[in-house]
Specification:
The structure is a single chain. The longest helix is centred in the middle third of the chain and has 24 residues, at 225-248. The protein contains 14 helices and 17 strands. Strands 6-5-4-1-7 form a five-stranded mixed β-sheet. It has helices at 20-27, 43-57, 85-91, 125-128, 134-137, 143-150, 186-195, 201-223, 225-248, 310-327, 336-353, 361-365, 396-401, 458-466, and strands at residues 62-66, 72-74, 77-78, 99-105, 108-115, 153-156, 168-170, 251-252, 257-260, 281-286, 288-289, 298-303, 409-412, 415-417, 433-435, 438-442, 447-449. It has two domains: 20-195, Creatinase/prolidase N-terminal domain (Creatine Amidinohydrolase, Chain A, domain 1, 3-Layer(aba) Sandwich); 201-466, Creatine Amidinohydrolase (Alpha-Beta Complex). With 470 residues, it is of the alpha+beta class. The radius of gyration is 26 Å and the shape is globular. The chain is 34% helix and 15% strand. Bound molecules: manganese (II) ion. Manganese (II) ion (MN) binds next to loops.
């Protein structure tokens, strides 16, 4: 007996009449809808300034930067779309599939934003395409609405082909319509990264709002410690922060780390499948990404039952000492290297004091030593902006050595991470992980700690945990 041939039918799109009469019926009889583009105040002028900064560096060259597309999750499901950061910085537009083209004109550049037009009534895909059709996903802003919101020339993506020439510099996410036509330009990517080294006032305001929402998110997470201990574990806390981030911003700026007890020393513990138990310190590394897509990046290590044990507190005090020393190195003219060297030296000294480091601090600081990195594998800070690790394409050497200037926003985040199975660590310290991470703005005279609403000392954190939720 021959098996029946397998016939695939997409279960979402039940067969519809393919008649002209049906098409006409679905195309007509729809009233107006709200298509306004959701854009933060001041976003259009900020993007215009950013385009001018980049345009000046590439006179006579055409620049193409696409937003990118949602990634496939599996089969016919996609991850939520988040546009490329370079594209957002230059446009303040968040439309999937959009492409920015800057064309040389009159000594500068003319900017045109090409967007996929909404799949509205009259188009068969309106009712037949579950991923793009407005009957499935809701109304979207069109050419007129984006033009109004961003004060930039906006055209249909279908007109894109005419706007490209042979001497085009590309950046950003991959875009099917540009394949084989625009090569990514390392010069442009570096220029975009370097142009973000100092944030303007509008960007700083966005970062402040991301920080404020993140601080409130930490409060929301701490309020759930009893529930986490009772039944929910690390996932309950992770999801609490993510619900908060989605409600008060666009979402999280990166995968939320919640490591409780022996998971705290794992730097990127995003699995979060462990319990939260009495006596644990829970390390939470989380950031709200604002609606403008600027993100905060904050870490606190909190005793779930309100009080550090003496040994947890000893480690926290040592990390706090390194954190304060590192923050003191943040200001105009100082570099990441200054801050990192100070943090590493303080951490190596702490490891000596704990009897863990068997070599001198000087030897640990030498390029061939670095024994302290076993207990602090990461760097101790990074630029922060639209990307949690902002400005990353300027090159490692420049990143570390370049003097910070007013407007730079960065994290400082030393830590000590004692793995539960690290036999070089005294048993009573194994399984303790402490990180303190703040977001700092470099000012003309020094710095401002944007995250100052969260204490950094053990006693202050214990008091903060006792405060009733706002
Ligand atoms: Mn960080």
């Amino acid at each position: 007996m021959r098996p029946e041939p397998f016939v695939f039918r997409d279960p979402r799109t039940q067969p519809l009449p393919a008649t002209e009469e049906f098409r006409r019926y679905l195309a007509s009889g729809w009233g107006p809808v709200d298509r306004r583009a959701d854009v933060v105040a001041g976003a259009g002028p900020a993007a215009s300034r950013h385009r001018a900064t980049i345009g000046e560096q590439f006179p006579g060259r055409t620049i193409v930067v696409p937003a990118g597309r949602a990634h496939v999750r599996s089969n016919d499901t996609e991850y939520g779309f988040r546009p490329d950061s370079d594209f957002v910085w230059l446009t303040s537009c968040q439309a999937e599939g959009a492409v920015l083209i800057m064309t040389p004109a009159g000594g500068g550049h003319d900017a045109t934003l090409f967007i996929p037009e909404p799949v509205a009534p009259g188009d068969e895909a309106f009712y037949a395409d579950p991923l793009r059709g407005e009957l499935w996903i809701g109304p979207a802003a069109g050419l007129v609405e984006w033009t109004t919101a961003l004060e930039v020339d906006v055209r249909s993506l279908d007109a894109l082909g005419d706007a490209l020439d042979a001497d085009t510099l590309g950046a950003g996410a991959s875009e099917p319509r540009l394949m084989g036509r625009v090569a990514p330009s390392a010069d442009l990517l570096v220029a975009l990264s370097a142009a973000k080294l100092e944030k303007d006032d509008w960007e700083i305001a966005q970062l402040r709002s991301a920080v404020d929402a993140t601080v409130a998110g930490f409060r929301a997470v701490a309020a759930e410690f009893p529930a986490a201990m009772d039944f929910g574990g690390e996932r309950w806390l992770q999801a609490t922060f993510e619900r908060h981030a989605r409600t008060f911003g666009n979402g999280v700026g990166y995968s939320t780390v919640v490591g409780s007890g022996p998971h705290a020393p794992t730097l990127h513990w995003t699995r979060c499948d462990g319990p939260v138990l009495a006596g644990h310190v829970v390390l939470i590394d989380a950031g709200v990404e604002a609606r403008s897509l600027y993100t905060a990046d904050v870490t606190r290590s909190l005793p779930v039952d309100g009080t550090f044990t003496p040994v947890q507190r000893e480690v926290h005090d040592l990390v706090e000492r390194a954190h304060r020393a590192a923050m003191a190195e943040v200001g105009p003219g100082k570099s990441f290297l200054d801050m990192r060297s100070t943090a590493y030296e303080s951490i190596a000294t702490a490891l000596r004091e704990l009897g863990i480091l068997q070599v001198s601090v000087d030897e640990a600081m030498s390029p061939t030593g670095q024994q302290h990195r076993r207990y602090l594998p990461s760097g101790t800070g990074h630029h922060l902006g639209l990307d949690v690790h902002d400005c990353a394409k300027i090159g490692d050497e420049r990143y570390l050595a370049e003097p910070l200037r007013p407007g730079a926003v960065l994290t400082v985040e030393p830590g000590l991470y004692f793995q539960p199975n690290d036999l070089t660590v005294p048993p009573e310290l194994r399984g303790i992980g402490i990180r303190i991470e703040d977001d700092l703005l470099v000012t003309a005279t020094g710095h401002e700690v944007l995250t100052a609403a969260l204490p950094i000392d053990a006693i202050g954190l214990e008091a903060w945990l006792q405060e009733s939720p706002a």
